[in-house]
Specification:
The complex is a heterodimer of chains A (330) and B (274). Chain A contains twelve helices and no strands. In chain A, helix 1 runs parallel beside helix 3 and helix 8 runs antiparallel to helix 9. Chain B is 55% helix and 7% strand. A two-stranded antiparallel ribbon of chain B has the order 1-2. Chain B has a two-stranded antiparallel ribbon with strand order 3-4. In chain B, helix 9 crosses helix 10. The N terminus and C terminus of chain B are likely disordered. The chains are: A mainly alpha (330), B mainly alpha (274). Chains A and B meet through helix 1, helix 2, helix 3, helix 7 and helix 10 of A and strand 2, helix 2, helix 4, helix 5 and helix 7 of B.
């Protein structure tokens, strides 16, 4: 068969394939009939063969590029991932994210230590001698903090709860995502974000405790602190996973390793984002509310229990099934 | 086929076919990025503008919260959302005919899109995507940090058309073996080059077509041992090339096919028209 016989015998199939592939690209899969789908995959295999024939016989770049384009489009269509759904989002948040976090708990504990130790040290030092706070916090931040937590609750502005929630979503989720992304610099970026964040929060806490505002302060932060502080550690965990995959790929190449760890890491980071959105709404609406201090402490304690249960128990029943599923997918 | 050009990459599919992709460089990607940025800024301004309508209706607190969440979604969610939904294309990438795919050739999932776009926060450092650019220069497949971590590449997603219209040569005189002193043969690959040149005649400047035709025709005539006319008429080379196609493309193989072939243009549009 020479080139022209080849073209005239095959071009009908190519055009049919273009029509079908065009349909899959513009419509939903369900609109394609069963026979059309099997026809499409048969045509795809035939065109794969055509392409290798054209490549091996050196029948010119225009045909080879054309067929290359067809195969690429087919490849794109046939090997695409399942479309998302609300049920999948729910399953991800309730099962997949906590299970993944538990699978990678060593990164979580490392991030935990990095987030707790510097803060506790600073907090203890500053609580004993609030003047030391000047080393970390500028004067005007100090006076602003004091004003915020010494004021009576009733004086706090009302009606701005949604605005504050929106602000916390944008600000805190942004910080968590940055903390995760900087893990790409061998994990150093993530570590420094965690440590600096910890020092800052620890100093503020120590400062307010030292100045005698601990009641107002803990009353305010205990509720959203559950989701917020934990989520920052979780995003640090995800960042450290990326960093570790780059620094110590083990038996695999770095790219191979990232292929496996990267996806798990981003899922954990997205879970941290979700937790921070929850925290933002608690911080915006519940924490500044005028509920009595005792109620707030109890609710706050309950929220901590919920977070711990969520991360330790979430997805446990499905764990085994999911693991086997993941292995198959890989 | 070997990789001869460093902005191409080859991927072997599960069907053992080697697919070639043109990698997108920093230039076109920056163009797409700036287009996306313009869209994002426009939406952001739109949100701020909407504030004046929302404030009286829903109160300052709700309106501000709504807009801040909107801004957050534009900042962090825009690219991941579109790349996840549109199989690796944002509106800007669509404009510049770029597409993000996995380095194994298949489309990206939502998580891949989220991963490569969250890592923009690393690529953007220390300013103006410096780290990303450096990373692209250092990797063979022009990947920024987000691409490396997510295992994705950005490719040019143009449609390659393949058109045949041999009917227009039917009324030419074929070259006879007696006119040629050497071996009466032209390779398929050479014919393909001639075909491409002739079909791009309308897209290229006329002088340029003649120049290329000369470069092709003179050695080809020499190879065949065909005597080109001495006068350098404007269309001497092009006429010769057309006659070569007429002679060596076997359009005689089926007279009935000819009329169909002359009409058929295999390209993206014809598929939908059919």
């Amino acid at each position: 068969m020479n080139r022209d016989q080849f073209i005239s015998s095959r071009q009908a199939d190519w055009r049919r394939f273009e029509t079908l592939i065009g349909m899959t690209e513009t419509q939903r899969d369900s609109k394609l009939a069963g026979e059309e789908i099997s026809e499409l995959s048969a045509l795809y295999r035939a065109i794969c063969f055509d392409l290798s024939l054209v490549q091996s016989r050196d029948w010119g770049t225009s045909m080879s590029r054309y067929l290359n384009g067809l195969v690429a489009r087919g490849h794109n269509s046939l090997y695409r991932s399942q479309p998302g759904s609300v049920r999948k989002v729910w399953e991800f948040l309730m099962h997949e994210f906590p299970s993944l976090l538990r699978e990678n708990h060593w990164y979580f504990w490392l991030a935990f230590v990095l987030s707790v130790v510097p803060g506790v040290v600073c907090g203890v030092v500053v609580a004993h001698d609030p003047s030391q706070a000047g080393r970390i916090l500028p004067e005007n931040t100090q006076s602003m903090m004091e004003m915020m937590y010494s004021a009576e609750r009733e004086e706090r502005e009302t009606g701005m709860e949604s605005a504050m929630a929106g602000f916390y979503v944008r600000n805190n989720v942004g910080i968590a995502f940055k903390c995760f992304a900087l893990g790409a610099f061998a994990g150093i970026g993530t570590m420094s974000v965690l440590v600096f964040n910890s020092i800052y929060i620890g100093t503020i806490t120590g400062f307010l405790v030292g100045r005698g505002h601990s009641g107002n302060f803990f009353e305010f932060v205990i509720g959203h602190g559950s989701f917020e502080l934990t989520a920052i550690v979780v995003s640090g965990c995800a960042g450290l996973m990326i960093g570790h995959a780059i620094v110590h790929p083990g038996q695999r190449t770095i790219t191979e390793n990232l292929k496996i760890r990267g996806l798990d890491a981003v899922k954990i980071a997205l879970g941290a984002g979700f937790m921070l959105v929850v925290a933002a709404f608690i911080e915006g609406f519940w924490s500044p509310s005028s509920a009595p201090r005792e109620v707030k402490i109890v609710v706050g304690a309950c929220l901590w229990v919920i977070v711990i249960l969520y991360l330790t128990m979430g997805g446990r029943t499905l764990n085994r099934k999911r693991l086997t599923f993941n292995r198959e997918a890989n | 086929m070997t990789t001869t050009f460093d902005t191409r990459t080859e991927i072997e599919t599960p069907e053992n076919v080697i697919l070639t992709f043109d990698l997108a460089g920093p230039g076109s990607r920056m163009g797409a990025y700036l287009s996306d940025l313009a869209i994002r800024l426009a939406v952001g301004w739109g949100l701020l503008f909407a504030l004046s309508f929302l404030m009286p209706a829903f109160g300052a607190g709700f309106s501000l919260g709504f807009i801040l969440i909107g801004l957050f979604l534009i900042e962090w969610g825009y690219a991941a959302f579109f790349e996840g939904l549109w199989k690796g294309q944002t509106p800007g990438k669509k404009m510049f005919k770029l597409r993000v795919i996995k380095d194994a050739g298949y489309p990206i999932s939502f998580y891949d899109a989220a991963l490569r776009n969250l890592l923009r926060a690393a690529d953007i450092l220390p300013f103006g995507y410096g780290a990303g650019l450096l990373c692209m220069v250092c990797t063979p497949r022009l990947q920024r940090i987000g691409d490396l971590v997510a295992g994705t590449i950005v490719i040019h997603d143009d449609e390659h058309r393949f058109r045949r219209n041999l009917g227009e040569f039917a009324n030419l005189d074929p070259i006879l073996p007696t006119e040629c002193e050497r071996r009466f043969h032209v390779s398929e690959r050479t014919l393909d080059v001639i075909e491409q040149l002739l079909w791009r005649r309308d897209e290229l400047p006329r002088r340029r077509v003649e120049e290329i035709a000369g470069i092709l025709a003179v050695p080809l005539a020499d190879h065949l041992g065909f005597q080109l006319e001495d006068d350098h008429g404007v269309s001497r080379d092009i006429l010769f090339l057309r006659r070569v196609l007429r002679t060596f493309s076997t359009i005689e193989s089926g007279k009935s096919n000819k009329s169909e072939k002359s009409k058929s243009k295999i390209g993206n549009n014809s598929g939908e028209a059919a």
